[in-house]
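Report of the visiting student (M.T.), summer placement. My assignment was to run the structure pipeline on a short list of targets and document each run. The first record concerns Membrane metalloendopeptidase like 1.
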Amino acid sequence: MLTLIFPGQLFRSNLNSVCTTADCVTAAARLLRNMDNSVEPCDNFYQYACGGWLERHVIPETSSRHSVFDILRDKLEIVLKGVLETEKEQDRNAIKKAKVLYNSCMNESLIEQRDAQPLLKLIESIGDWPVASDAWNTTTAWSLEDTLAKLTARFHKKVLLDMYVWTDDRDSRRHIIYDALCINYRDLAYLHFMVSIAKITREDRNLTQDDDRVWEEMMQVLELETDIANVSNSYNSAQHLNKKNIYVRRTMQNYLTWQLIIDRVNSLSRRFKDARARYRKTLYGTTVEDAWWRECVRYVQSSMENAVGALYVRETFAGESKQMVSDLIGKIQKAYVETLEELSWMDSPSKEKAREKAMAIKEHIGYPDHILQESNQKLDQEYTHLNFSEEHYFENILENLKSEAHKSLKKLREPVDPDLWIIGAAVVNAFYSPNRNQIVFPAGILQPPFFSKHQHQALNFGGIGMLFIIHCYFNSLINYSAEHFKEQSQCMVQQYGNFNWKLAGGQNVSGISTLGENIADNGGVRQAYKAYLKWVEMEGEEPRLPGLDMNHKQLFFLNFAQVWCGAYRPEYASQSIKTDSHSPLEYRVLGSLQNFEAFSEAFQCQKGSQMNPKRKCRVW
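After the run finished, the structure tokens were exported:
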């Protein structure tokens, strides 16, 4: 039974009433502020829904893009800063360690004082960095296998071959090893970055500056990275491999060491950080680096997810939201199963497999219960082997990496823990693991505009609802009915491939590389809307929001669009259109709604208008 903010009978008896509670006024004000009423919804619904937001928000100098997601992440980081900087005697061990790690990161004066010392020690421990050494060939015994093993076991760094332990696709009770080629493609700015770090390192070792040699050696590293990328991306990998490019051991060691160094540059002194900032400015258009405390918060959050999640949940999260989200998911599951019968391209066995998987999905909402249970030692045990020092931030990071490597490899001989969360609570996103058939809605995403126990269900279904079920099943179903699926999806490839993104220098969106996510977006909004209508059938229409001349159906689509409001810098747009598997935010909204008849009906868009084209694409 769905937990309701208002009794269903109240909705039924007041179809034309207006909700004037503080929560309704707040929601209406947010929606109105973000809109641009000068635009017709049937001409460009994204501009109609997000025009006010785009006019009001300026991309921060520290960012390459700015969106609703980014704003929520910024707010979350402020909360985490507050709780990490608050010392409490009663803190359990896991929390104390998270705060020690944070304090070590915030000790900028000591990081500056230590300068390159931690890096030089690290380089020596993995067989040195030839480009920053004048005696490597004569003093160093070298083995590619030993170096790769050391990078994996001690530093959790995957180079050349990305090997990791995860749940078996064919047996979700056990773990297996997966592998894939590591792909890196870089440009001239990246080469400058490599050279800068190499020159700084040579300087700190009191070696003569040999610029020509440094440039030559790092160019060879770049060529090696490019060849690896070409092998991975080529339609004919064998043809590339048959070239039999042989790289001398010096180039290989330069490459392997650089792969470890690049991740650690930002945890060193200002000289190193400035080199990284110059590279990021060229690549993403950012002119200022984030405040250092944000970097510290992000690192602690990513490396101690459950400890930081416990701090965040205690500070902000309303536990009763769990049941509301669970009920919403149940509605969408049922809508998804009903939709399967409408799909002519899917055969009966495929539909049955899809139905079984849909109903067997394991949902994790908000946070794992044990992180708030003082009597449960599971949280402390997770970090029992970690020992941090407030004076050694760099070494603390290495300690974490070694721990993660051992934890990952240890899983291979352990059965899968079905209750394990794949992500922490203090995250603004939703996640799905097809191997585990597990969906996670962390506490960080369960806030407006995505979800609130205080806002209309039209907004909740349009926000968090569409993120849910279609992302779960796309990858698992295309194998069942591949040929029919391809026929249906080709329409979508052409549709999105015709979107021309002026911000990216007039490049067109790749309908092929974004296909999977486009199908997910289209299906997600369709299933969420169908589930919402089922909810309305049971509970009745909700009162209108004040100041908005919109019915409940229109509110659903408005909030769906507004969760994707965002802007990009041109530099970032030019990069992301080549590499991102998602369409740009604007086209995620436009493409999905152009294909959905229910949207055109809700806003009475004439056939042939921009938002109601004659040709529509549908896979789900």
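The CA atoms of residues 273 and 299 lie 15 Å apart. The chain has 28 helices and nine strands. I thank the supervising group for their guidance throughout the placement.
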